[in-house]
Specification:
alpha/beta; Aspartate Aminotransferase, domain 1; five-stranded mixed sheet; three-stranded antiparallel sheet; 17% strand; globular
């Protein structure tokens, strides 16, 4: 996620920068590092910062910030700036309610929580989501709305939101897909991060763009280099039959060089 560096008013907006430090050779995006140096990072949010953006669970790592540590960060930062928590992948986490910052919105804190219908609901093509915020913040958001979803998007979102059976089915399918891909990665001794999202971030040990091209030659489209991590590739979950095909081609392409 690239940093947001300016706004028309001249104040600054803070977002995770496309860089990180490694802890035990596992990449951690800035919002993960925040929790290890929380007071120092929070102190960097001065009066010139108007908004701090965090994605939890994170993209592209799939890692989730512990609730108590994110609460502590909000305690220090929210009095000075709006904290926007992007919970696009929250419903796919092991314990969505425990990881959500919705309780901070309900408490009236300077916090916005956003969700999308593009992930667990499977409505990415409709481009619709929603934000939850205290009344004063919600009114500010309304005054700056720049576009509106179509009536079809509204209807689809409302129907999906109440379809508990479909959402449970989506969670099961994503979990099965993750297990399938994780087993394939373990079989190939490829290191990957534990994920709370609908994708897996793995270190394939070679240039991810070159590997992407090799997979494309076999009829499989995957993500190449993501940010500064040249050997890490993100794999999103899809239909199980497609993931089975992916695993088959990955095995062949990954082991071709060794052969």
């Amino acid at each position: 996620m690239p940093p947001i560096t300016a706004s028309p008013s001249g104040t600054r907006l803070c977002a995770p920068a496309p860089r990180a430090r490694a802890i035990g050779n596992v990449p951690n995006t800035v919002d993960i590092v925040v929790m290890r140096i929380g007071r120092k990072r929070a102190a960097a949010v001065d009066d010139g910062v108007s908004l701090v953006y965090l994605c939890n669970p994170n993209n592209p790592t799939g890692l989730a910030l512990p609730r108590e540590q994110l609460d502590a960060f909000i305690d220090r930062v929210a009095p000075r700036a709006v904290v926007l928590i992007d919970e696009a992948y929250n419903e796919l986490a092991a314990d969505p309610a425990a990881q959500s910052m919705l309780h901070r919105v309900q408490a009236g804190d300077n916090v916005i929580v956003t969700r999308t219908f593009s992930k667990i609901h499977g409505l990415a093509g409709l481009r619709i989501g929603y934000a939850m915020a205290p009344p004063t913040l919600a009114e500010t958001l309304r005054q700056h709305v720049m576009s509106f979803p179509s009536s079809v998007a509204y209807a689809g979102a409302l129907a999906s939101y109440d379809d508990r059976a479909f959402l449970q089915h989506s969670r099961r399918m994503v979990a099965e897909g993750r297990s399938l891909v994780q087993e394939m990665l373990r079989r190939n001794r490829v290191r990957y991060l534990p994920t709370e999202a609908n994708f897996i971030y793995a270190d394939i040990g070679r240039d991810a763009d070159a590997f992407q091209a090799a997979m494309k030659a076999e009829g499989v489209l995957i993500r190449g280099v993501y940010g500064p991590y040249r050997t890490w590739s993100r794999v999103s979950m899809g239909r199980l039959e497609d993931l089975e095909r992916f695993a088959e081609i990955f095995d062949r392409v990954y082991n071709a060089r060794a052969a």
